[in-house]
Design a protein that fits this description.
Layout (H helix, E strand, L loop, with lengths): L1 H31 L4 H30 L4 H21 L9 H16 L3 H5 L5
Helix pairs in contact: 1-2, 1-4, 2-3, 3-4
Amino acid sequence: MQLIRKVLCWIFAITSLIYLADLYRIILYAINQHFPPSVLHSLLIAALFSVAVAAISGVAWWTIWKKTSSARGWAIAASIMHILIFLRQFIFPSRAVWGHHAGALIIGIVGLIAFLWPDKQREFQQPSR
């Protein structure tokens, strides 16, 4: 299970970088074009989603990498964000191809299983005196 958690840690880092780049592209696209308010509203929603995914995935990566006590909670949040990446295509249909959403669903489910699974090492540790 530790190997799966380490792999997910780096997947969260890559996801954070991808969504930061996506945010950058959205901002440049919005600046260089003149859109009606409805399109700008959609771009704003996409930008906010990119910020949320990048931030949560980035913090999840950092806390798992540094092995902080909050790592499990952030990893669960990042896994849920991956499931939301999959669901976004049904909530906000788009003509653009945003990538492989099925992969995000698999990462989200595996992440939830890996980080919700009880950690056997902690159960058997004896308190030091």
